[in-house]
Amino acid sequence: MPDAPPWMFRRIGSTPTERCRTPFAVATRRRLTCVAGSCSEWCSNSCSYDRERLYHCIVDIKSNNNVVYRCTYHVVWCPKYRRRVLVDDPKYGPVETRLKEIITEVCAERRAELIELETMPDHVHLLVGVDPQYGIHRLIKQIKGRSSRLLRSEFPLLDRRLPTLWTNSYFVATVGGAPLEVVKQYVANQKHV
Hints:
Blueprint: E1 25-28, E2 31-34, E3 40-42, H1 51-58, E4 62-63, E5 68-69, E6 72-77, E7 88-89, E8 93-94, H2 95-109, E9 113-120, E10 123-129, H3 136-154, H4 156-161, E11 171-174, H5 180-188
Antiparallel strand pairs: 1-2, 2-3, 4-5, 6-10, 6-11, 7-8, 9-10
């Protein structure tokens, strides 16, 4: 485990009992609770805590002006009629490569953290962290709208073959319950299954 950066810690109080340095801890009497809410401990003079567990708990916590959050989503959507058009081949052109570029651009513009992206010939897997006030639905609307418009204008065969590039629906699930590394591995290994 890498050492946690110093900005993740803050001093609480001035007595030895209150001087515990735990990541983003909030002192309530003698109890220290991680802001993420999933780890807590009772303060003692020895102040021993599981540094690795606390570090992994808060390493991906983000914040804006008034919200502290950790929202990671697994999103899957497919082209209209589940056509196998998301490929790099001479017939269609480099559709897959261009789609990945567009998704990366939109995520960067919307300050969404693109964790993992994998395209299959007939669907897209996306693992992304989004500000809850912006919302995953707006991000997906932006990604699907811009990619449909740009890909259909750049690759005329898509325009002739499909009335619209994407279906109206998509699958979205939060990955708060599963370890992020497991979901990243699942998305990354889609081509090899």
